[in-house]
Design goal:
This protein has 178 residues and is of the alpha/beta class. The protein has 2 domains: 91 residues, Transcription Regulator spoIIAA (2-Layer Sandwich); 82 residues, Oligo-1,6-glucosidase, domain 2. 19% of the residues lie in helices and 16% in strands. The protein contains 5 helices and 8 strands; from the N terminus they run βαααβββαβαβββ. The strands form 3 sheets. It has a 3-stranded parallel β-sheet. The protein has a 3-stranded antiparallel β-sheet with strand order 6-8-7, with no helix packed on it. Strands 3-4 form a two-stranded antiparallel ribbon.
Length: 178
Amino acid sequence: MAHRLYPRSWADGDGDGVGDLPGMRARLDHLGGARESLGVDAIWLSPFYGSPMVDLGYDVSDYCAVDPMFGTLADFDALLTAAHARGIRVLVDYVPNHTSDQHPWFREARSNRSSRPRDWYVWADAAPGGGLPNNWPSAFAATGRAWTLDASSGQYYLHSYSSAQPDLNWQTQRFARR
């Protein structure tokens, strides 16, 4: 049986009122591996990456970091080791549709139209006569529209969710490699 865990609310390891990775590790026996456990053999972790938390971690600003509210990369490694020792597999929620508007790629993309990561996001000119490029809706943007004008470049960027979550352009498939 698999179980989804939201790190922010599942287990607080340091007593600050916010769940974290050490808290999760400390309570793994409740899930699986122990005689009195729930019999969980896999956990799916909601995002715990670096994020400004506009969308509770789904607005990723650093895919290679653990947000400090959840702990450190060493804390994640310890959680993974402890889970595996109990026969619990770990699935990490990956967010490939968009980044945070605070991600270095997007910051550089909006710095000028010829920047290297510009085409890693979806940009469009205004419609003839001005205004939004089209009538596409956003899943939960306050405006209801999936386009936000970037005043510095004069183009709109696409966001299927919040305007703080610009969509990645999977048509180009030319993302940076670390």
